Amino acid sequence: MPDTLYRGEEFRPKLKTSDHSSRGRRIQRRIRNVRRAVYGMFYRGCYWVLPRLPIWSVRLLGRSLIIPISRRLHWKTAESNLIKVYGDELDAAERKRILTKMFRDLPEFLVECVSVMKHGAEHFLDRIDDESARALIARLEAESPKGWIGITPHLGNWVTLATWASSLPGDRGRCHAIAKRQPNPHLSAVIDDIQERMNFTPIYTDEHPMQVVSACLRHLKKGARLGIAPDQDAAKAPGVFIDFLGYPAYTSTGPAQLALTVDVPLVPLAFVRNGDRFEIIHGDPIYPERDTERTRQQELVRLTRAWSEAIETMIHERKDHWAWFHERWKTTPEKLAQRGRALPQSG
Fold first, then answer.
1. CA distance 203 to 321
2. Were both Cys, which of 56, 113, 247, 251 would link to 242 (CB 3.0–4.6 Å)?
3. pTM, whole model, 2 decimals?
4. Residue 265 CA, distance from chain mean position
5. What is the mean pLDDT of residues 44-60?
């Protein structure tokens, strides 16, 4: 498949509801708002209660609710993706072991986040094997006053990884993380509070694209640590099809655009569990190359392919840590062509 770049969807700002809206639409909007408010009360209640509970009870509650619900909703999709990628390399027993471990780890994600909110980052820093990652980041930050971009898959606990990045020594300040805002404003407010307590700052992608890009560039030029988890289907973003786990996957070129514009490295990182301890695994930094015969588009493709291959290696090594229920290969070239998204240039 040629490395054809695709542009993102046109940004359409949210418009105020017209005075001529139908009565039916107003009723639907009111019902939606009431439903969101009810859910918001539940979210607020959980947010108030969980950090006040003993950690063992949070774990028990998570295992009792999250595991059976998530297995019922996502097991078939996760198993289908696992078969798609590995085929006969994994027998039924091994697939079951991987998926069982993956679903059992979902409550641990909650437990770890609650633990950080309850006790602070210092509570788990001495349980992380991160000497190699710390040495790598120290070297990068000594080389340049500019920042760096952490590329992480949805592997292990990608949220707590941002907390770890904020705890690194130096005067770089909090880690900034690209995040998607929840449509329910009540849940969004809860998540904002959680991120504040977990000591990192989100940059939401629902703003105008130029505002998002401008904020990222500004922070990187000032030396910030920026985290992105770009291994999901990115149908609305500018991107290119890259072979991922054996199949063409539409992949955002956003991280490469930022790295090339500011001339900062991309650093593959992941926060994984290792028994009752944690580990920061990482790949080699990926540097943009300006003084080559490649065009900018070709360099964007090279950078995107490089970080994609790096996190692909992490997934192969930690199969039971990755969220296999994502619809990673949902977007196809045909779908983008129907939307008029293809660019005439080729990488």
1. 25
2. 251
3. 0.88
4. 18
5. 85
Query: Does residue 134 lie in a domain region?
Result: yes
CA 310 to chain centre: 15
Tokens 């990482």 correspond to 282
**What SS3 class is residue 151?**
strand
Residue with token string 């980041």: 137
Domain residues for 333? 27-341
The string of pLDDT tens digits covering residues 122-148 is 778 888 999 999 999 999 999 999 999
For the chain, give the mean pLDDT: 88
347 found inside a domain: no
Concatenating the DSSP letter of every residue in 75-132 gives HHHHHHHHHHHHGGGS-HHHHHHHHHHHHHHHHHHHHHHHHHHHH-THHHHTTEE-HH
Q: How many domains does the chain have?
A: 1
Q: Is residue 13 part of a domain?
A: no
Crossing angle of the two packed helices 55-86 and 92-119, in degrees rounded to 10: 140
Phi, psi (degrees; rounded to nearest 5) at 292: -135, 175
The answer to whether residue 246 is domain-embedded is yes
DSSP 230-256: --S--TTS-EEEEEETTEEEEEE-HHH
**Token pair 């849940």: residue:** 187
CA distances from 84 to 68, 80, 297, 328 (A): 24, 6, 30, 11
- Listed in order, strand segments (DSSP E) in the chain are 4-6, 128-129, 148-151, 175-179, 200-204, 225-228, 239-244, 247-252, 266-274, 277-282, 342-346
CATH number at residue 229: 3.40.1130
In angstroms, rounded to a whole number, what is the distance separating the alpha carbons of residues 88 and 324?
17
Cross-sheet strand order for the sheet of 239-244 = 247-252, 239-244, 4-6, 342-346
